[in-house]
């Protein structure tokens, strides 16, 4: 009964903490706050290992892990409380303090962010006291410590059911309150109609999508687009109350814009491939979409900003999201004429919440951690010498142009193939340089030219295919690309830290013997 007391107390505390967080802000909930702190404190090598192992489920695994630890602590606190009640309650209080400190450590946190964890800890302590007292109050004289009579067990069971019922009611209230808090954001996105672009993108060229079985579409559907960020709770921003502030060094005309004012400027549509720096060689953290937005360079010029090459004082543009994430981008890059956008649309739809609604940054040619701030709230001009953004403080490079990469999508690793002609196909990218050629080889032999799909500018990936006459046995397929500058992708294998992985993608397959 001590273990049950601890678990029930933890459930009650978590539910009341979640209810309080629905009033304060979702990011202040204990599991979310502790999870964010764990992400911040996790060594880069461990974090990259988790991404490789769990992929986009890493946040779910982290949340489950935190709950598992909490359950173990709750059981221990309950067992301890049966023997020494103050000590058990002290454990609960200590865990609540950890949650409060984690919440206060989060970006944009204020003193109110500590309230959910403190309220939850008080609730857990009260429930633990109530249950443990009920379990031990009427123990017969001479009975083993913790022993109870049958009536006591029934009474204890009724009390547990009552606490769980109250917790369920509070949980329903938290759910409804949280839903109400995001209802305005959901409604604002439902009402939002993408304006027509001033400069529409041309149609995707015929032949860009090779339509090879096993090869994904040229434009990645929104629901399939990769997502890598630190947000354990996806921010749901109300487009009607969204604001953007542009200020800092070299800004002679600071700007404060709402969404209507932003959309009053010319809108550009452009196809751009995004890539995450955590993408291993051959990995899936790359996607191609048609983005709609305002040219970032034009907006900075409107604010009076000049690039360093023209005497500007700032060389870094620090974007801050509503949850406090900071991403630093070279000012020279966003103002060199490329289609660096404050995007509002993705593949003909308003941005999904998970991809930054209502406004995010998209800069072709740079990895996302130095360019692709989601849920944008602020743009501040500064220097790389004066400020390190979030990921730079965690061992990543300040500047990170995308590296030339090619990937084999079909056949899959360790596939069993029939002998004869096999379509080896995939994608290659070198954003803002373009792809000029892709070559494939088998078992370390001579490089063979693959056929490229039509190019859709220099900012998107290109599909490729090579017909292979497969013979029985075990084989290794390798691919490499050459970018628009004539530079051949290096075969030297390096990890993702500090500025992106390198190496040729290899796939091992087995071709069955002839019947």
Quote the beta fraction.
15-25%
Distance, first to last CA? 66 Å
Output the radius of gyration.
28 Å
Mean pLDDT: 92
Q: What distinguishing features does this structure have?
A:
single chain; 515 residues; alpha+beta; five-stranded mixed sheet; five-stranded antiparallel sheet; 19 strands; 22% strand; globular
Give a nutshell description of this structure.
This protein is of the alpha+beta class. It is built from ten helices and 19 strands. It has a five-stranded mixed β-sheet with strand order 2-1-10-5-6. Strands 3, 4, 7, 8 and 9 form a five-stranded antiparallel β-sheet that branches.
Descriptive overview:
This protein has 515 residues and is an alpha+beta fold. 33% of the residues lie in helices and 22% in strands. The protein has ten helices and 19 strands. The protein has helices spanning 2-24, 30-41, 44-54, 58-83, 85-104, 115-136, 150-191, 259-263, 296-302, 331-334, and strands spanning 243-248, 255-258, 267-275, 286-295, 316-321, 326-330, 341-346, 349-350, 360-362, 376-382, 405-410, 416-417, 420-429, 435-442, 448-449, 451-452, 462-470, 473-483, 505-511. The strands form four sheets. It has a five-stranded mixed beta sheet with strand order 2-1-10-5-6. Strands 3, 4, 7, 8 and 9 form a five-stranded antiparallel beta sheet that branches. Strand 7 (341-346) and strand 8 form a beta hairpin. Helix 1 (2-24) runs antiparallel to helix 6, helix 2 packs across helix 5 and helix 6 packs antiparallel against helix 7. The radius of gyration is 28 Å and the shape is globular. It starts with a helix and ends with a strand. Mean pLDDT is 92; it is low at 144-151.
């Amino acid at each position: 009964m001590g273990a049950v007391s601890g678990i029930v107390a933890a459930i009650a505390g978590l539910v009341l903490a979640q209810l309080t967080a629905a009033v304060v802000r979702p990011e202040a909930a204990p599991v979310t706050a502790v999870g964010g702190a764990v992400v911040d404190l996790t060594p880069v090598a461990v974090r990259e290992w988790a991404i490789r192992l769990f992929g986009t489920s890493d946040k779910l695994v982290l949340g489950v892990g935190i709950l598992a630890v909490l359950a173990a602590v709750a059981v221990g606190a309950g067992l301890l409380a049966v023997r020494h009640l103050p000590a058990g309650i002290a454990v609960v209080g200590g865990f609540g303090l950890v949650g409060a400190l984690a919440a206060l450590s989060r970006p944009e946190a204020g003193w109110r962010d500590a309230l959910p964890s403190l309220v939850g800890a008080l609730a857990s302590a009260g429930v633990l006291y109530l249950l443990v007292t009920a379990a031990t109050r009427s123990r017969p004289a001479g009975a083993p410590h913790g022993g109870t009579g049958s009536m006591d067990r029934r009474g204890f069971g009724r009390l547990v059911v009552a606490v769980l019922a109250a917790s369920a009611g509070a949980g329903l209230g938290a759910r409804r309150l949280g839903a109400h808090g995001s209802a305005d954001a959901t409604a604002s996105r439902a009402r939002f109609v993408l304006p027509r672009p001033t400069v529409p993108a041309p149609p995707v060229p015929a032949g860009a999508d090779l339509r090879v079985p096993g090869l994904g579409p040229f434009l990645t559907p929104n629901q399939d687009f990769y997502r890598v960020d630190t947000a354990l709770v996806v921010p749901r921003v109300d487009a009607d109350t969204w604001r953007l502030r542009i200020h800092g060094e070299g800004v002679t005309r600071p700007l404060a814009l709402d969404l209507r004012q932003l959309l009053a400027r010319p809108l550009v549509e452009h196809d751009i491939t995004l890539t995450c720096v955590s993408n291993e060689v051959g990995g899936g953290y790359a996607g191609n979409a048609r983005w709609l937005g305002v040219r970032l360079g034009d907006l900075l010029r409107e604010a009076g900003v000049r690039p360093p090459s023209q005497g500007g004082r700032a060389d870094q543009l620090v974007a801050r999201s509503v949850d406090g994430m900071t991403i630093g981008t070279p000012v020279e890059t966003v103002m060199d004429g490329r289609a660096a956008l404050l995007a509002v649309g993705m593949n003909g739809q308003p941005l999904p919440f998970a991809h930054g609604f209502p406004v995010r940054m998209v800069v072709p040619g740079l990895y996302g951690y130095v360019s692709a701030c989601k849920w944008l709230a602020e743009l501040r001009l500064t220097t790389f010498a004066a400020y390190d953004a979030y990921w730079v403080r965690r061992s990543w490079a300040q500047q990170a142009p995308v590296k030339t990469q090619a990937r084999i999508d079909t056949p899959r690793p360790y596939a069993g193939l029939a002998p004869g002609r096999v379509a080896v196909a995939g994608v290659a990218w070198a954003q803002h340089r373009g792809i000029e050629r892709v070559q494939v080889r088998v078992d370390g032999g001579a490089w063979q030219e693959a056929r490229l799909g039509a190019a859709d500018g220099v900012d998107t990936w290109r599909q490729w295919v090579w017909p292979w006459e497969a013979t029985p046995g075990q084989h290794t397929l390798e691919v490499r690309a050459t970018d628009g500058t004539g530079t051949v992708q290096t075969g030297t294998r390096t990890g993702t830290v500090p500025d992106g992985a390198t190496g040729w993608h290899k796939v091992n397959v087995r071709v069955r013997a002839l019947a």
